[in-house]
Every structure is written in structure tokens, then in C-alpha cells.
Design goal:
Length: 219
């Protein structure tokens, strides 16, 4: 059975923001059986010798599928999709489309968004305001292209919902506290459509339960 290593106790501002939720969302979508191993971030459990052995950068998520260890949220959700035979098409071209959009989400779209998120969380340091302006400009460039891509499409890579949508939408969540998505109606509708999925709602609820907070505290 898959064990998903993710955040247990975290600082309040980190609640519901971990990339472990990408993996849990994929697991909830597929229905694969799994257990969640909650790591106490505040107590330094990510730095323990046991966790160092399975996580190359001492971060979440990692999965251990009866001895098969996979780290990095992109690789983890692709593993889950492959194992379940869900959230990725069976044909070669369809699969490559999904891989392309997984990379796009993680290496193109997410980069400026996590920069903006970090600055807004007060971790910007000197010159943060100027850097934020540049990052917003870059984000708008990618948003405009996503808006174009979503013309007449429900999901980003294929006709059906895939792990590429999980990665893209969770990247977009990093600016969910801003109004940056507002000028893009198709992107906005896509974002809302994805987050309305019952598997995401379950993921949020499970996160709230293990964190001991009300559901409303999980953005
Ligand atoms: N590239 C990695 C990034 C993982 C990552 O940033 N994990 C964060 C939580 S979202 C983490 O574990 N932070 C704790 C730390 O770095 O000490 C992935 O996509 O899985």
C-alpha cells in the first residue's frame, strides 16, 4: 500500500499550502488505498535521519509504495496516475500531452507564483516590492497564454481531468489570496471548476482534520 509522507503539525501560515496536498488530491481522485504519514514540521521531523533517507531535499511529498520511493510532487502524481491507470490517458500522445503540461505547471507557471507567494508571506527581503512587480508581469504573461489555451477546453492537457490539472491548479492556489486571476475569465472558471471537485474537497477536509483546525482555515 502507498504511504504518503506529508505535513502534520506546521506553522499556521503553512496550513493547506503543502505540495503534499497534490499527492493526496491525486490519491483521492483515483481511489487507490493509502495511508498518510503526518510529519511534525515544527519539531523538525523532516530533518530526522529516517526522513533524510527517503527525501532527497528533506521536503514533502514523498511516497513509499511497499519499498518503491518517489519524491517530487510532479513525479509522485505521475506515479499515482500510472499505478491507478487514471488521471492520464492510455495512448502515447495523450500521455505526452499530460507530461508536457505537468512540466509547464511546475517549471513555467509555478515559478513566479511561488515567488509572489513568498514575498506576500513576508519572506521577500530587500527589494521585494520591485521583484514582485517583475514576477506579476511574468505571471500575467503565462496567464494570458493559459487563457488562450482554455478557449473551448475544459481541462488543460486532455479532454478529461488529469494530473496536469492537479499540478497547474495547485500552482495557481499559490496566488489564491490575490486578485491576479481576475482578469482571465476562462482561467478563473477553470480554477473554480477544478477546486469544486469532490476529491479536492475531501483532500481539504482530511488536511483540516489532521491539523486539528476548522475546514475554513484550509484555503
Ligand atoms: N520541488 C518539490 C518542492 C517540495 C516543497 O517545496 N515542499 C515544501 C512544502 S510545499 C517543504 O517540504 N518545505 C519544508 C522545507 O523545505 O523545509 C516538489 O514539487 O515536490
Amino acid at each position: 500500500m502507498i504511504t504518503l509522507y506529508g505535513f502534520g503539525r506546521v506553522h499556521p501560515e503553512m496550513l493547506g499550502q503543502g505540495r503534499d496536498l497534490r499527492a493526496q488530491w491525486a490519491l483521492e481522485e483515483t481511489g487507490l488505498p493509502y495511508r498518510f504519514h503526518a510529519l511534525d514540521f515544527i519539531a523538525g521531523e523532516l530533518d530526522s535521519p529516517a526522513y533524510r533517507r527517503i527525501s532527497p531535499f528533506r521536503q514533502v511529498p514523498v511516497i513509499d509504495d511497499d519499498g518503491i520511493i518517489v519524491a517530487e510532487s510532479g513525479a509522485v502524481v505521475l506515479y499515482i496516475a500510472e499505478k491507478a491507470g487514471k488521471l492520464i490517458p492510455a495512448d502515447f500522445i495523450g500521455r505526452i500531452q499530460v507530461v508536457q503540461w505537468c512540466f509547464a505547471a511546475l517549471t513555467t507557471v509555478e515559478r513566479p507564483l511561488s515567488g509572489i507567494d513568498g514575498i506576500d508571506a513576508g519572506m521577500g527581503g530587500v527589494g521585494a516590492a520591485e521583484r514582485r512587480t517583475v514576477l506579476v508581469e511574468e505571471a500575467n504573461r503565462w496567464f494570458a497564454e493559459l487563457e488562450r489555451r482554455l478557449d473551448g477546453r475544459e481541462w488543460i492537457a486532455c479532454e478529461t481531468f488529469t494530473v496536469a490539472d492537479i499540478l497547474l491548479v495547485t500552482a495557481l492556489r499559490e496566488v489564491g489570496h490575490t486578485d491576479l486571476l481576475k482578469p482571465y475569465p476562462r482561467l478563473n472558471a477553470y480554477y473554480a471548476r477544478a477546486l469544486a471537485r469532490p476529491a479536492w474537497e475531501r483532500t481539504r477536509r482530511l488536511c483540516a482534520e489532521r491539523s486539528g483546525v476548522p475546514l475554513a482555515d484550509i484555503p
